[in-house]
Amino acid sequence: MSQPILEVDDLTIEFQTGESSITAVSDASFSIEQGEYMGLVGESGCGKSTIAKALLGALDKNGRIVSGKILYEGEEIQDFTEEEFNEKIRWKEIAMIPQASMNSLDPIQPISRKALEIADAHTDLSKSEALDRFKEAFEIVGLQPSRISEYSFQFSGGMRQRAIIALTLFLRPTIVIADEPTTALDVIMQDQVLNYIKKIREETNSSMMMITHDISVVFETCDTMTVMHSGQVAETGPVTDLYDSPTHPYLMLLQDAFPDIRYPNRDLEVIDGYPPELTDKADFCTFVDRCPWAVDECSQTAPRLESVTDRSVSGDGSDSTHKVACIRKDEVPQLNEERKRQGRTTADGGSDEGDLP
Amino acid sequence: MSRARFFVVRSIQTVFLLWVAFTGLFFFFRFMPGDFTNLMLAEGANPDAVAEFEERWGLNDPLYIQYWRYFMNILSGDAGMSIQYRRPVWDMVNTRIFNSFILIAPGITFAYLLGSIYGSIVGTKRGSKLEEFGILPLIFVGSFPAFVTSIILVIIFSSWLNLFPTSGMISPGRQAEFAQLEWYQRYLSLEFVWHFILPFTAVMFRYLYLPTMIMRTSIVEVMGQGFAFFHRITGISKRRQLAHLARHASLPVITVYPISMTRALGGLVLIEVVFNWPGIGNTLVNAVMVRDLPIIQFVFFLVAAYIILANFLVDIVYGIIDPRVSVGAEDA
C-alpha cells in the first residue's frame, strides 16, 4: 500500500477558555490516501470541524495542538506558522468547503475577484488563465460561467454553496475538506450538491475528507470512514467493512439508530446519555457511560486504535485498515448479537423484522 | 448601469432637498415673530421712516413675490444685502464661512481617519489590555464640551509651554501684510498653520472617540463572520485579509460621519469664541439678535446645504464601497 497523502497521528487539540481548558480532540489518528474519499462522522461537538481547521492551520486563537502530528505527503505540518500554511498548504494542497459556506463569500467582493485573489496568492496563472479555470469550475457545479463576476448577494443560498465549491476546486487541490456540505440544505439541494461532489471525483484526482453527522451521506459517497466520539476516534476503515461488521459499540448502536431501507418499519433505537466534556486529555474510553458492555477497565485507560483481525467477514486482506478503539473489540460483536436476540424475544418476535433474510 | 442610476436618483433627491431647505427657511423666518422694523420702532424711528424702509426693501409685496425674487437672486448668485450693515451678504460671510469650514472639515475628517485606524488596531487585539483601556482616554476627552478642551489646550500649550498663540488666525502685527495678498494665500502660510494647530486639535480630539468606538465594535463583529474565516483559509496574506475586514467594518463609521460633521457645527461657535477664530459663529449670533434676515437665511441655508451635501457624498462613497446599496437597488 502506498504512502497516505495525509496522516493524522495521535492528534490532541486543546482550547483555552478563561482559566480552564477543554480538550476537543484526544489522540485522534486516521489517514487518507491519494484519490480516496473519507467520511468523518460523529455527533455535534465531537471534534470533527476542529480537526478540519487544524489541517489548514486555522484553529481559533485559543486553540492549539498539544501533541501528535499531522503529516502531509510525509511532512509534519502541525507546527507551521500562518505564513508557511499560506505558502505550502492552503488551497493549492488542502482546500476546504467551510461549514455554513453560504456565508463564506465576502458580500462586497465579486466572486471572480476572490478567485483571482486566491490564484494570485498561490499560483503563477495569468489573470485570464485563472478566470478560465474558474469558469470551468463554475460549469462543473452547474452555475453559468457568465455570472462569475457577480456578487454573492445576487445568488441564492444553494448557488452560493456551489460557488464556494467552485472556488475550492479551481486550483485543483490535492485534498478537499467538505465540512457538512449538505447541512442546512433541503433534500433536493442536498442531492444536487452530493451529485456535484461525485462529479468532482470523476473529473479530478482529489482526495476528500467529508465531515458530516449524516452517516447515510458517507455510505453513499465515501470509500472509508472514521467515526469519532467525544474527541476520540472510535473506529476507522473501509465503509463496507464498517457497515457490514461494525466493531465499536458506538457504531453498532448507531446502526440501529439510523433508518434502514431494508426494514422500513423498524423502531429506531436511541443511544442514551451524552458525550462527556473533557477538560483534559481523555485517559479513558469516552463512550464508557453510554456503553452497555462497559467494564471497569474501560474507564481506567484510553483504548488504542487496533486492527480488527479475527473477523471472518472480509477475508481479502483489507482488514489491516479497519481499526477500532475498544478493549473488548473481540467480544463486543458477539455481545451485540445476544442483545439483539434478547431484544427480539422481549419485543415478542418483532413483527417488523419477520422478513429478515 | 444600475449603479449609475443609483447616483442619478440620489443627485435628484439631493437637489430636491436643497430646495426644500431653502423654501422652508424662507417661510420659517417670515413667520417668526419680530423683524428688523420692530427694532427700528423700538429705537424711536418714526412710522414714515419705517414705511419708507418697507417700501424700499420690497416688504409690502405679497410673500410669494418676495420668495420668487429671492429664489431667482440666489440662483443668479446674489445673496442680497445685510439690512444692518448695508453690505452684500456674500462679501460679509464668505471668508468667515471658509474659516469655519477649514476648521471643521479637516478636524472631523482627520478624527475619522485616525479613529478608524486606531479602532481597527484595538479591535483586532481583542482581549488585550489595549482593547480594555485603549479607548478610555478618548471617551474622557470626548465627554467634555469642546470649549473646555479648548481652554485646557490653551492653558497648557499657549500659556505654560508657549508653543502656540492663544488666539486668532493671523497675529495682529501681520494683519496688514496679509491684507495685501490674495485671499487664499494666508491659508498657505506658516503663520496660519501655527494658529490652526490648537483649534484643529480641539475639534479632532473632541470627536475622536466616536469613530474609534464604532470601528472597534465593527471590526470585532466582522472578524466573527464566515467570510473572515474563509479569507483566512484561502491563504491570502494577513494584510489583504485586514484590508477586506477594514473595508467592511468602515461602513458604519462612514454612516455617522455626516452626523459628527453636523454636531461639530453646533459646538463650533464656542470653540471659535475661545480661540477668537474669525469664523461664522459670531456673525450668525449677531445677525439673529437683530433679525438681519438676509444673513441668517443665507448662512442657515449654507449650513443645511453642507449637511445635505455631506450626506450625499456619504451615499456615493457607500455605493462605491458596498455594492449591495447601489447594485442591489436594481432589484428593490
Can you tell me about this structure?
- The complex is a heterodimer of chains A (357) and B (332).
- Chain A is α/β, with parallel strands linked by helices.
- Chain A has a domain at 229-352.
- Chain A has helices at residues 48-55, 82-89, 111-122, 127-140, 157-169, 187-203, 215-221, 239-244, 249-257, 332-346, and strands at 6-17, 20-32, 37-41, 63-72, 75-76, 94-97, 175-179, 207-212, 224-229, 232-238, 306-307, 323-324.
- The mean pLDDT of chain B is 84.
- The relative contact order of chain B is 0.15.
- Chain B has two domains: 1-84 and 290-332, no CATH class; 102-288, MetI-like fold.
- The interface between A and B is medium-sized, with 34 and 23 residues.
Which features does this protein show?
heterodimer, A: 357 residues, globular, B: mainly alpha, 76% helix
User: Unreliable runs of chain A, pLDDT <50, ≥5 residues?
Assistant: 314-318, 347-357
Distance N to C terminus of chain A:
36 Å
Largest sheet entry of chain B: none
- Tell me roughly what share of residues is in helical segments of chain A: 25-40%
Strand order of the largest sheet of chain A: 6-7-8-3-9-10-12-11
Classification by helices and strands of chain A: alpha/beta
Main beta sheet strand tally, sense and closure of chain A: 8 strands, mixed
Low-confidence stretches of chain B: none
* Terminus-to-terminus distance of chain B: 15 Å
